[in-house]
Amino acid sequence: MKSIKNTLIALVAFAGLAGVAVSADDSAVHNKQVDWSFNGPFGTIDKQSAQRGFQVYREVCSSCHSLKYFKFRNLADLGYGNDMIKAFAAEYTVAGDIDSFGDPTERAGLPQDAFPSPFANDNAARASNGGALPPDLSLVAKSRADGPNYLYSLLTGYDDAPSGVELGEGMNYNAYFPGNQIAMAEPIFDDHVEYSDGTAATQDQIAKDISMFLMYVAEPKLDARHTMGLNVMLFLLVLTIIFYLSMKKIWAPVKRGDNIIGD
Amino acid sequence: MSHGPSFEPKNAAVKWVDTRLPIFSLIHGSLGPGFHAPRNLNYWWNFGSLAGLCLVIQLISGIVLAMHYTPHVDMAFDSVERIMRDVNYGWLIRYMHANGASFFFIAVYIHIFRGLYYGSYKAPREMIWMLGLVIFLLMMATGFMGYVLPWGQMSFWGATVITNLFSAIPVIGEDIVTLLWGGFSVDNPTLNRFFSLHYLLPFVIAGVVILHIWALHIPGSNNPLGVDTKGNQDRLPFHPYYTIKDIFGIGVFLLFFAGFLFYAPNALGHPDNYIPANPMVTPPHIVPEWYYLPFYAILKSFTVNFFWVPAKLWGVLAMFASILLLFFMPWLDSSKVRSAKFRPLFRFFFWILVADIVLLTMAGGRPPEGIWPMLAAVGTVYYFAHFLVILPLLSRFEKTLPLPESISSAITKKSAK
Fold first, then answer.
1. Alpha-carbon distance B274 to B151, whole Å?
2. Which of A93-102, A158-167, A200-209 holds the top average pLDDT?
């Protein structure tokens, strides 16, 4: 009885701790919640959606945003073949070696290269974007609280500024952005891209697909982590039950009240 | 504490070694059948071995991480991402280390509260308690420096805020800060020395853990009744009884640990630490890791200067005092009765203290707006009042319940009921 009570106390304390962890991330506006395929212990990245999201990144986002931690070769995880990956990489130009005359060269991208930034440096990026720096998107799904939901909410959350809100020059109103004024203009619209798999390219769908892709880019080992987690948990569960039964057996004479050591 | 039979090796090779280096005797007498423990230890006594397990997990995962990590301001963040993406099972090792720190603190906090509840700090165990607090302080320093290493936004700004605390010390404060930084701001020298110390201190912790366990073996473990063992009927050999119980505890603990590690690896961290450190951009809300929040709340709860001492210095003094105070527990609480089981008022105030620390944890994590600064101040005042006023008064005036004659008599009575 007592041990059950103690277990309950431990569980309540643990739930409280998890609660602290979650509530520490409270943002001003509550993000729209999407039922993502990667949620929950059995969740996985939806590869179809992530492939569409990659298409959106390539055709829309990549004109301003880099993915400096994501390499072309990583696309194999999403189901692309080697030839396609080579072709994607070759679309980009990256800095090459120093040639025999000591001059810098350029070459076509290779699978081992990361997605290059569209700008030479941060100053060039700011100059082209009204002073705002488009952030690298490699980790954006983890570096914002409630990441994937935040991205989806932001991309579908553009609106006219409510009366009384004075927007800065070149700024746009978005209820989900901290401070509500964002330099990036509404980036995606209905039918902005044409999906080859026939999915209707509504703004809502595009926002979900790019968020899925960016979650994959931020957490490329998510599927492996969930799979290994299940195996580890099942193994530990069986092991712990065996430990428990062993303990009960060893402790039986103690519970009977025997004097174990003797006099 | 009576010790069990001395080790008598049957194997000739073991005997040859043991007569020249009594390592087998040492294990036999400290973790084996040669060490006798009270027979009534409950599950709260599992958290010592669990904290030890966490130290081992942190040491092993940390040594592997250090093989792949680069302590340089321009490369630290990238090297951590390389670990997460390209190093084989790097994600597993890094999430294990990051969540392992949290679980180390969970185990140690429960271990400390168990000691507070059952009076394990009282004579003759004062030295065990104080060595434990030294371990706790070393853990806080190690954890803080470890959080700086990924060189994210929270790493950088956390390091800036915490190192700046030392500037509140009169006269020499600024020089101490310069020394900590290795320059005039948090920069590459800071990262390098933090990495060096983050690698060193865990081994110092391991050393103090050995002292902690050595000191424990003089009087032996306290127990839920808080009365000394009187004979062999009150005791059990540590092995196999408490070894198997500790192993079962490890199984349960690892299930919780794996739950976080595999399914919510970032829940206990801060999203801002996935943004590379930028000295030009201050995050809107700088918070330390959850395990420092009560102390952070105490630090922040001083907002006005009084007695010619600036508020910042009050905050820093109070924060350090809140931990150093615990070293005086054996004398602040002079009651002869150890266990809260026989101290109804002490038990009541113990749970109020737990609630107060939960309140401080919540206040520490929130921006100083609305009701929170007030709650932090009240929580801080109560924290000190508990140790400096309530405990000394309680130990003098509380009417304690009658103690059982011995552990075995208490057990027989309970089973007779």
1. 9
2. A200-209
Cis status of the peptide bond prior to B124, with omega within 30 of 0 = yes
Q: Look up tokens 């948090």; give the residue.
A: B186
Q: Which of B269-278, B295-304, B305-314 has the lowest mean pLDDT?
A: B305-314
pLDDT band of residue B308 (cuts 50, 70, 90) is confident
C-alpha to C-alpha distance for B35 and B2, rounded to whole angstroms: 8
For the cut 80, the answer to whether the pLDDT of residue A5 exceeds it is: no
> Alpha-carbon dihedral of residues B144, B148, B150, B152, nearest 10 degrees?
120
What pLDDT is attached to residue A13?
A: 53
Alpha-carbon span A91 to A108, nearest angstrom: 7
Per the prediction, chain B carries an average pLDDT of: 94
Burial environment of residue A12 by CB neighbours within 10 A (0 to 12, 13 to 18, 19 or more): exposed
The answer to whether A92 and A116 have CB atoms below 8 angstroms apart is yes
3-state secondary structure of A67: strand
Given CB atoms, is B278 within the 8 Å cutoff of chain A?
no
Do A124 and A165 share a domain, yes or no?
Answer: yes
Query: Within this chain, do residues A198 and A234 fall inside the same structural domain, yes or no?
Result: no
Rounded distance between C-alpha atoms, residue A52 and residue A58, angstroms: 10
- Here the tokens at position A149 are 């939901």
Q: What is the ipTM score, two decimals?
A: 0.91
Ranges of H-type helices in chain A: 2-23, 47-59, 82-90, 122-128, 140-143, 147-155, 203-218, 222-256
Of A21, A143, A251, the CB nearest to B272: A143
d(Cα A30, Cα A23) in Å, to the nearest integer? 12
Please tell me whether residue A79 adopts helix, strand or coil conformation: coil
Percent of chain B exceeding pLDDT 70 equals: 98
Q: What is the pTM for the complete model shown?
A: 0.92
CATH 1.20.810.10 fits B35-416, yes or no: yes
Chain A environment of B36 (Cβ under 8 Å): 261
Q: Please identify every residue of B annotated as catalytic.
A: 217, 221, 245-246, 289
What are the chain B neighbours of A66 within 8 Å (beta carbons)?
Answer: none
State the residue range of the domain holding A240.
Answer: 225-256
> What pLDDT, in 10s, does the model give residues A67-91?
999 999 999 999 999 999 999 999 8
Q: What total of structural domains would you count in chain A?
A: 2
